[in-house]
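Recap for those who missed Tuesday's class. We walked through two folding examples back to back. For each one, the amino acid string is listed first and its predicted structure tokens come directly after. Nothing is annotated here on purpose, so try labeling regions yourself before you check the end of the notes.
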Amino acid sequence: MKETQYMPTEKEMINNLIDYYSNLQRIKTSTDSQKEVEYQIRLVKAKLESFGIITSNLDINK
């Protein structure tokens, strides 16, 4: 059986881009950019993990 790949609607894509843009603006204007970046990462990780995506494989290790 062939899996059907989900394609987001145009409105969903626009909404996602608005979210990305507003998050970058929050980071840019924050008085503590590092704290804001960490917060944004926590939010995205929670969203990804709610879909069963393991985020530890995506982390950059220094």
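Example two. Treat it independently of the first, because the proteins are unrelated.
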Amino acid sequence: MTNITKRIRTVCRKKLRIPAALCILMIVVFILCPFISVFHPDAINDIHQVTSDNDYVKVKAEHLYYTGYNLEKAGGSLYGYYYSIKDGKSIFAVIPIEETPKDVVTNYEFKAKVTHPDRAFQKMLESYMNDLNWNVDSLSEVNADFILSNADYNPLYYMIFLWIVLVIFFIALKKIISYILAVINPYIYPVCTFIGKNEQEVLIEDAQYELESGNYIQINDMYITENYFIDLSRTKISIIPLDEIVWCYRMGEISLNPRDTAPEFSICFMILSGSVITAKHKSSDEALELINAIRATGYEIIIGHSEEKRKEAKRIVADYKEYEMQENKE
């Protein structure tokens, strides 16, 4: 005997896997990405106290000397290559500049990413050493093996990424909680989205009673009882009172899986509230058989899709809403 609450529990247990995996993935992403370092960089008063162990820093330099070379980032942002010398040691920094860069910048505070020299920096350094007739290898002995790049300090990107991570995490967490609660109490599972939660239990029990009576038409995981359409698919459980259905029609689905050769269809039910409830991923035979079973119920349901039938269904919905408004006024 088909048990609706048991099927609800089974569906919810299966659907727990994806949001649980997403939650774990987002936690791993949060741990691996340097969000805290980016938003709260290490505060260092002297640029020469920075080491390669630092990731992001808020640093102050007493003197920065302009190399004469610039770096233009995507979007037109302009940066200049500067260096600081102290006790025979040098550190290069990439900081924002105006159209006319200053030769010397004093008591300058900036935020930067501590990064390894890239190809652009190496080319600049070779050109700069040639201009000064210096030896690059000799400079490497006194120069730090990292640079401080404000150009690579992009907290906005990390902020956007953090929001994406948090949104995905909390949506997945909400789904996990809802599925767990539905496993504990299947009567809160939204088998019928247009009724209140308090009516769910009555609806499920009534539908279960009609299933147990044995007076129904079964089409694989779908059932037409005396008063209900019941869809007990692998991914969703739906129960729709037949007297709420105004219009029933099928629509083809577009599959993004190239391995799918057989077409799939959705069965759409417009109800008295005007909402459309969809039973997805049905074969052509299932869809046609269900449409015929709905037609044979004896309820006044518009069957099939056309512009005339759409207008007729909307007219019935509008008349019903107007009737409800009049009843509420009285």
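Answers for example two:
The two ends are 46 Å apart (CA to CA).
The CA atoms of residues 251 and 266 lie 5 Å apart.
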